[in-house]
Amino acid sequence: MTNDTRTEKDPLGPLPVPNDALYGVQTVRAVQNFPISGLRPLWPLMRSQVWIKKAAALTHKETGRLDARSADAIVRAADEALDRKHDAQFIVDPYQAGAGTSLNMNVNEVLANRANEILGGKRGEYKPVHPNDHVNMAQSTNDTIPTNIRLSILAELPALVSAFETLRDALAEKGREFDHIVKAGRTHLQDAMPIRLGQEFTAYAGSISRAIRRAQEAADYLRDLGIGGSAVGTGVTVEKEYPELMNKYLKQITGLDVRVGEDRIQLMQSMGDPAAFSATLRGLAIDLSKIANDLRLMVMGPRTGINEIMLPAVQPGSSIMPGKINPSIPEMVNQVCFQVIGCDTTVAIAAEHGQLELNVMMPVIGHNILLAMTILTNAARVLAERTVKGITANEEMCSYWVERSAALATALMPHIGYARAAEISKQSVKEGVLIRDLVERDKILPEDQIDDVLDLRKMTEIGVPGGAHSVSAGG
After folding, report:
1. N or C: at which end does the chain have fewer Cβ atoms within 10 angstroms?
2. Given a cut of 70, is residue 387 above it in pLDDT?
3. CA atoms of 30 and 107, how far apart (whole Å)
4. Do both 200 and 61 map to the same domain?
5. Do the beta carbons of residue 253 and residue 53 sit within 8 Å?
6. What pLDDT score does 20 carry?
7. For residue 138, what are the CA distances in angstroms to 31, 55, 59, 378, 428?
8. Chain centroid offset of residue 179 CA
9. Catalytically annotated residues
10. Residue 243 belongs to some domain of the structure
11. Are 412 and 379 in contact (CB under 8 A)?
12. Which of 365, 396, 427 is the last residue of a domain?
């Protein structure tokens, strides 16, 4: 030991701990054991663990199991942590021993040492407040970490929903703004029947809206808390009043609408609820990435692509090609979505790897869900504010391409039959002649029907172009 360290002991023996550290020997051991990613714990997970410790101190103060002086000191230490005064003390790697014991003990030690300082004691002596006996009273890693994951997701959900509602509204507004613009539809990246640019953007908004609802519905299952399950879900060492009181204080502290879980053994065994929520994030990422793909396709050009929309320029697009502007934000969104899909894959595998009374893979489950929520929230907000709200339409190019679409021959099919319409489509491509010009030139339809049958706007609504007609045998 040097003047810069103190010696602390756990069941495995003594270790030096930095004198200025609020954490203790078990945290140091975890840092030594798991130098994996260089990452610190995500704040939502640390915050939720502190919430649980504060609620437990208040609960035990009310039942009289913990003396008021110690309980108040723990609460004060927790409030300091929640004010982000001790962030530097939470240092365990997200990739750690199973269940999250390292994270739990990191918080226990920080709060115990700070509570003892508040009471006039010294760091590392754990008198009168001990990290296990008092901060962790009636708790286990095994019930606090599942509760933490649920609280963390619920706490971060409003920001996620708000960001995606902003994106949804921005897309819907573009749907209204662009509703008059008819453009070429494309399926298989080939010419298809006309669609309005506004219809595409309205559909994007609808996809986001449905994805938001799926996430909210899945999150409701997370409101059931298994706190009070203790080591294996049975509640050993836990007072009967504890689950209800914990729920009461967690509601007060967090502002979240949470419930006392009916089956704490089930809530400890299964990570099905977090995994189901993670799957909705994957669905959200899939829809979001598809929208980003479409924006990148429609902005392609400006001279050698379809160039149907313009995105706001946010940065130079090339270090060598002057004047080049890339769809930088949609490209970022794609990458975020790939990462979220990877996070969900990790969550799914980890959730399946529970055994018997506990899923020990909870640290990686919590980390990946909260990481996915964070980057999705930020990506949606940036896409809405720095891209979607500034999109403009290139009406001239939309008109240019739709008039040249070989798929317009589809409108002729009710009048001349599929086979003849297919011939006209191929002829249009081969000769480089517009469908309308072919119809007029070859007198395929009576002159007074052409405008009605080939009305591009009408083709974007349900109905039969030019009205339903019988086609004689052979077309």
Report:
1. N
2. yes
3. 13
4. no
5. no
6. 96
7. 26, 12, 10, 38, 78
8. 30
9. 318
10. no
11. no
12. 396
Give start and end residues of each alpha helix (H) in 353-417. Answer: 362-386, 395-403, 413-416
CATH number for the domain harbouring residue 60: 1.10.275.10
192: in domain? yes
- Residues 53 and 148 reside in one and the same domain: no
pLDDT tens-digit readout, 398-412:
999 999 999 999 999
Same structural domain for residues 132 and 147?
no
Angle made by CA atoms 378, 384, 389, in degrees to the nearest 5 = 160
Distance CA 204, CA 207 (A): 5
pLDDT, averaged across the chain: 96
As a whole number of angstroms, the distance between CA 17 and CA 15 comes to 6
| Displacement of CA 137 from its chain's centroid (Å) | 34
Domain span at residue 443 reads: 406-460
pLDDT tens for each residue of 233-268: 999 999 999 999 999 999 999 999 999 999 999 999
Q: pLDDT tier at 475 (50, 70, 90 boundaries)? A: very low
Same domain, 420 and 388: no
Residues 100 and 179 in one domain: no
Domain count of the fold of the chain: 3
The region of weakest confidence among 70-84, 100-114, 424-438 is 424-438
DSSP 201-232: HHHHHHHHHHHHHHHHHHHHGGGEE-TT-TTT
Are 382 and 329 spatial neighbours (Cβ–Cβ below 8 Å)?
yes
